[in-house]
Amino acid sequence: MQRFDGAAARVTSPASPAEPVQAVTDLASASLGVSINTAVLKSTIESEKRVLDILV
User: Fold this and answer.
1) Is residue 55 scored above 80 in pLDDT?
2) pLDDT tens digits for 5-49?
3) List of long-range contacts for 7-16, beta carbons under 8 Å, 24+ apart
4) Cα–Cα distance between 51 and 7 in angstroms, integer?
5) Can you spell out the DSSP letters for 1-56?
6) What are phi and psi of 18, to 5 degrees?
7) CA 21, CA 15: separation in Å to the nearest integer?
8) CA 37 → CA 3, 13, 18, 19, 34, distances in Å?
């Protein structure tokens, strides 16, 4: 979330012409990171459910 906040702040108040490009790049990178983390968490939860189903 901190990366989103920083990128959003730079988009709303750019210091130089290159800042918006960097802010958008940072925002896309942060979004991709969240997507990857979400996928890993879902996979881990599904694996744990399968193990519990086997044990029960």
Assistant:
1) yes
2) 665 665 555 555 567 778 888 888 888 888 888 888 999 999 999
3) none
4) 40
5) -HHHHHHHHHHHS-SSTTHHHHHHHHHHHHHHHHHHHHHHHHHHHHHHHHHHHHH-
6) -80, -20
7) 11
8) 14, 29, 29, 27, 5
Q: How far apart are CA 44 and CA 40, in angstroms?
A: 6
17 Cβ neighbours under 8 A, 6+ residues apart: none
Domain boundaries along the sequence of the chain:
2-55
Sign of the dihedral defined by the CA atoms of residues 19, 21, 27, 29, in that order: negative
What distance in Å separates the CA atoms of residue 50 and residue 56, rounded to the nearest whole number? 10
- What is the Cα–Cα distance from 41 to 30, expressed in whole angstroms? 16
Q: Which amino acid is at 47?
A: S
